Amino acid sequence: MFRRAFTLLRSTTPSSVGGGVLNTVGLGRLNHVAIAVPDMEAATKLYRDILGAKVSEALPQKDHGVTTVFIDLGNTKIELLHPLGEKSPIQNFLNKNPSGGVHHVCIEVDDIYSAVKTVAEKGIKVIDPVPKIGAHGKPVVFLHPKSLNGVLVELEQK
Which residue(s) pair with 56 in the sheet? Predict the structure, then answer.
C-alpha cells in the first residue's frame, strides 16, 4: 500500500496523476510512519521496554488534537498518536479501528508551499492547503487518501 502511494508521488511518467507531477515537488526521505494507538502508555512500553527502542516523552499537540510519542529508528521514526480531546481526528480513526493502526506516512519536501501548489494543480486533493506547524516545529500539510491509493500522506518541510 505504501509503496504504491510513494511510487505515485515519485512518478514522472505520463500515466501518473496529471501527467508527471511530482518530480517537481522535491520529495525527500520518509520522515515517519504514524500509528494511532488506543493506549499510549502501553504502546510506549512496548517499543521502549520490549523492543528496546529509543522513545521520546509524550507531547500534547493541542493544535492537532493529539498526543505524540516518537520512536527513533535511526534512519526514520515511528510516531505514536493518541487522541487529545473529544474532537480529535485520531479519536475518529480509533472509533473505526479500535485496536489502532497505521494512520499516515510523512514524507519530507524541499518547499512545502511549492509542493502544495504543484499537487493541487495536478488534481491531488490537499486536505487543508494552508500549512500548519507540525510536531517537529515545521510546516506540514496532508494529502487526501482518495488521491493517493488510500494512504493519508503528510508532507513536511525539510
Answer: none
